[in-house]
Design a protein that fits this description.
- The protein is of the alpha/beta class.
- Helices cover 30% and strands 26% of the residues.
- It has 10 helices and 18 strands.
- The strands form 4 sheets. Strands 3, 7, 8, 9, 10, 17 and 18 form a 7-stranded mixed sheet that branches. Strands 13-12-11-14-15-16 form a 6-stranded parallel sheet, sandwiched between helices. The protein has a 3-stranded antiparallel sheet with strand order 2-1-6, with no helix packed on it.
- Helix 7 (253-261) links the parallel strand 14 (243-248) and strand 15 (263-271).
- Helix 3 (149-173) crosses helix 9.
- The chain is globular, with a radius of gyration of 20 Å.
- 45% of the residues are buried.
Length: 349
């Protein structure tokens, strides 16, 4: 098998070859045919999250090096363990990567993505920047019907993350107004899914004019630049007093602050992005405006199933996807870190 791995945090990815793993029990072996490149790959590769005020959250522990990134994975089944009955060699499947221990109360509640002993593909164990992938159980493999493999793989992270966040604001946003902050890969995935989840009037905010234009093309009523000093007053005017819900797909100090500031009474901010930094807000504003702030981390397996059914039924708008060969994994990470990518890049084996 051939994989693209980092041997030290922040170092260039290198091509490594080795023997493909064998399977037993409930395990499934796959040939990787496509793998999306996600912004969270950059944090894993760098080994930390920025907490603001020159503080960093070190996430290097528990991960063996060299490590293979990639959690948005589609592939073809090449071997199955003796206990596997629901997939067979030759089946094409998209892979749910947010795998937990399977034994703790969190996993048994259905929120496996929040497990404290995770086995997440491309995060904790080897992922899809490779031509071969070992999946611990066939329940994590979903049929993607007639969807293209490039589109299907994006639903396992950017799509799922957006879908789960939209579910968290649905009760506030339905019949009202929703602001999506960040028209990057995940934000545009949110735009593509939103019309199937909520009937809210949708606005988009981004500091990049090209991404604001992409948000308009994806169906936003209007797009604003939140870094413009006049943006707050202008936005409150155009929305008649703010929005009922905000999803922050950036997760920076400035984006979260803007997202909270433009909420109406009873509004809700969901922070998804992991850009980093700190966030503060006067405590009296929480009860005075009766607002709430949630965090949202990817999504659970049931949400993944729901999302795939919507996608296969043709109820989601298409995403802008740029294919690249797998050998371009490192260059793609650098381009993504530099903000040079609009939409999603999907690596192909």
């Amino acid at each position: 098998m051939k994989s693209y791995q980092f041997e030290e945090y922040g170092a260039p990815l290198v091509e490594k070859t080795g023997e493909a793993p064998s399977v037993s029990g409930e395990e499934v072996l796959m040939d990787v045919t496509a793998c999306g490149v996600c912004h969270s790959d950059i944090h894993i590769w760098e080994g930390y999250f920025d907490l603001g005020n020159e503080r960093k959250l070190d996430i290097r522990g528990g991960r063996e090096l060299p490590h293979t990134l990639g959690h948005e994975i589609v592939g073809t089944v090449t071997a199955v363990g003796e206990k596997v009955t629901d997939v067979k060699v030759g089946d094409k499947r998209v892979v749910y990567p947010w795998i937990g221990c399977g034994e703790c109360p969190i996993c048994k509640s259905g929120e496996e993505q929040l497990c404290n002993r995770p086995r997440q593909l491309g995060v904790d164990v080897a992922g899809g920047y490779s031509d071969t992938l070992l999946v611990p159980h066939s329940r994590y493999l979903l049929d993607y019907g007639s969807l293209s493999k490039e589109l299907a793989c994006t639903y396992t992270c950017s799509g799922l993350t957006a879908y789960s966040a939209l579910q968290k604001v649905k009760s506030r946003a339905d019949g009202g107004k929703l602001l999506i902050i960040g028209a990057g890969g995940v934000g545009l995935a949110g735009m593509a899914i939103a019309k199937s989840v909520t009937d809210a009037e949708i606005y988009v905010a981004d500091i990049d004019p090209e991404k604001r234009e992409a948000g308009i093309k994806a169906g936003a009523v209007a797009a604003i630049d939140p870094s413009d000093p006049a943006a707050f007053k202008s936005f409150m005017g155009m929305t008649g007093g703010g929005v009922n819900a905000t999803i922050d797909f950036v997760g920076a100090e400035s984006s979260a602050a803007f997202g909270a500031k433009v909420l109406t009474k009873g509004g809700k901010l969901v922070i998804v992005g992991l850009f980093g930094g700190g966030f503060s807000m006067p405590l009296p504003m929480f009860p005075i405006k009766a607002i709430s702030i949630d965090g949202s981390y990817v999504g659970n397996l049931q949400e993944m199933r729901e999302l795939m059914e919507l996608a296969k039924a043709g109820k989601l708008n298409e995403l802008s996807i740029t294919p690249r060969p797998m050998k371009e994994a490192y260059n793609t990470l650098e381009d993504l870190r530099a903000g040079k990518i609009v939409g999603r890049v999907v690596l192909q084996s």
